[in-house]
Amino acid sequence: MPRDRPGRRRALGDLLAAAIDPRCLTPASEQVLASDAADDQLSAGVRRFAGDAEKSLADLADLLASGTYQPGLLTEVVIPKDGGHRVLRVPTVPDRVVERDLLSHLRPHLDPVLGPGSFGFRPGPGVVDAVQALARLREEGFGCVLHTDLHDCFPSVDLTRLRRLLGS
Asked: What is the domain partition of the chain in residue ranges?
């Protein structure tokens, strides 16, 4: 299969154009706000962004459209987990808006190619669905299960390679 197909490049260009459309940033920012408000307490960053949302979104749209947008630094947060701890790297509010916006445009293209056993990081399917799928497989005669978890998966992603793959 050729690595560089003109139709694929055009489709990615169309996707990028849709993703940086200022009209799409508003629903993305509303989702970020709703997610942050889920614990009934808005973070200071979300309060600042939402305090002048129109200007925040216009500035973000300008940066995206001009190609000068640069993601901010991640904030590390340590949370307890299974007798130890886990380090979360939290993006800035504008970065979360951009991520949410890109996700809304990528998901319709990615979901159809994900296998029926893909349950993580997707809306809808959850733990109950995964357990039911395993039970069905057991009933069909499959007797072995491989449980995996990629330790510190996201920090281990080779960003140079990922960018090259996304750019091709």
From this structure: 1-113, 117-168
